[in-house]
Amino acid sequence: MAQPGTAQAWKLFPKPVESLFPKGYPGSNPGVGGFPFKMVPERIKWIICLTVILLFSVYITNIVRSFFQEPEDISIILKNISEGTKSVNDLALNASEFTYSSIEWKTFDKHCTTACFITPYPFIQIWSYKYAPYILKSKIGSCGEHAHLLTYLLRKLEINTTNVLILYNTGSNHIFNEVWNNGEVTIFDSSNKPIIENRSDEMYPNRQIMYAERVFSDGSHEDITKLYAGESYGRINLSVTLFGKPYADKKIKVHSANSTLINFTTGNDGSVVIGLGGNTSYEVITNVWLWKPFAMNITGGEFNNRKIELEWHKKMIVNILLLFLLIVVSQVLIFFVIIPCWQRIKKEYNSKNR
Predict the structure, then answer these.
(1) In this predicted model, what pLDDT tens digit does every residue of 148-179 receive, in sequence order?
(2) What is the DSSP string of 240-280?
(3) Beta-bridge partners for 288
(4) Torsion of CA 16, 19, 25, 27, to 10 degrees
(5) Distance from first CA to last CA of the chain, Å, rounded?
(6) Structure confidence by residue, pLDDT tens digits, 43-55
(7) Closest-CA residue to 161 (of 153, 169, 170, 173)
């Protein structure tokens, strides 16, 4: 005899497990897809399903928690980095070497496969040093993960550091660190070489630097293209007007031939300073709804003043008017032709069948 309450307990799951899979699952039909799950008792099926859901929930929770939870051995890591150091640069060098040895170089676009996700800590790109604890768990990343982890370690050691983002006109980009000490700046690239002495000669000379910006701890940005592009740096003072008046808060897009994209925004006076390097030609594009897109070419290394006067986009306006006219005509046909005709046909049909 069954124990009292057993049947009632299983009424929590009144439907069979197959109802969770409308299109079936492997083995749902005997002899198809391997093991015939229809032969398994219903209670065992539910136990398996709930176990899988529970394990997946624990897996996701563990990943999310590792983004914010400080590693248990962080104090040991910082102690090892600090041992035997006499200066800020020595500390930064030790931290850079630790970062280089801790992370396996992989890029998300080239190396990310299914295998990257079938791990306790899958391959996830990190966009801020605040989530660097996850990098210590996954131990996978490219230059961005290296730079963010180094920033995290140095700020734990109370060393002033900033991230630098470089965009090349070849379409690639790179991130590394600047370490500040009494007004002096030392460049550390923990994904490549520990210390870079010269900004322009050693920053991958076969690539032309298009744009560079410095990212501070509070998330603010500073354009430092002139500092890194060297002699190839140029500056365009661009003003955007609409009906002869300054057009403020307008987004300006700058493209290189290899699809490197930078966004600028005009100020209250409708002007924006576009600083670029690389000694190559770039395309400046503006696009405002109802206004004709404007494009011009500028060159890195050029110092000049340019002006964009937005014009009515006549073709777009005509298309909008035609669409509006089409909607009005269709509504007139529906309410004054189609519906009356349908009502008359329906009325005649009813009168014949009486």
Answers:
(1) 999 999 999 999 999 999 888 777 888 999 99
(2) EEETTEE--S-EEEEE-TT--EEEEE--TTSEEEEEE-SSS
(3) 291
(4) 30
(5) 67
(6) 787 888 889 899 8
(7) 153
Q: Which structure tokens are listed for 287? A: 């696009």
53-60 contact pairs (CB < 8 A, 24+): 59/120
| CA neighbor of 136 nearest in space, from 93, 145, 105 | 145
DSSP, collapsed to helix, strand or coil, labels residue 349 as helix
Q: Where are the domains of the chain?
A: 14-68, 74-230, 233-310
The amino acid present at 316, given as its one-letter code, is M
* Residue ranges of E strands in the chain: 104-105, 140-141, 161-168, 173-181, 184-188, 195-196, 209-215, 221-223, 234-242, 245-246, 251-255, 261-265, 271-276, 281-288, 291-299, 303-310
Q: How far apart are CA 41 and CA 75, in angstroms?
A: 51
Q: What is residue 177's predicted lDDT score, i.e. its pLDDT? A: 92
CATH match for 74-230 among 3.10.620.30, 2.102.10.10, 1.10.10.10, 3.20.20.140: 3.10.620.30
Q: Which amino acid is at 286?
A: T
Q: How far apart are CA 172 and CA 225, in angstroms?
A: 16
CA distance 289 to 338: 36
Structure-token match 């439907």, residue found: 15
Query: What are the tokens at 187?
Result: 């460049």
Q: Which CATH number fits domain 233-310: 2.60.40.760, 2.60.40.10, 3.40.50.2000, 2.60.40.1120?
A: 2.60.40.1120
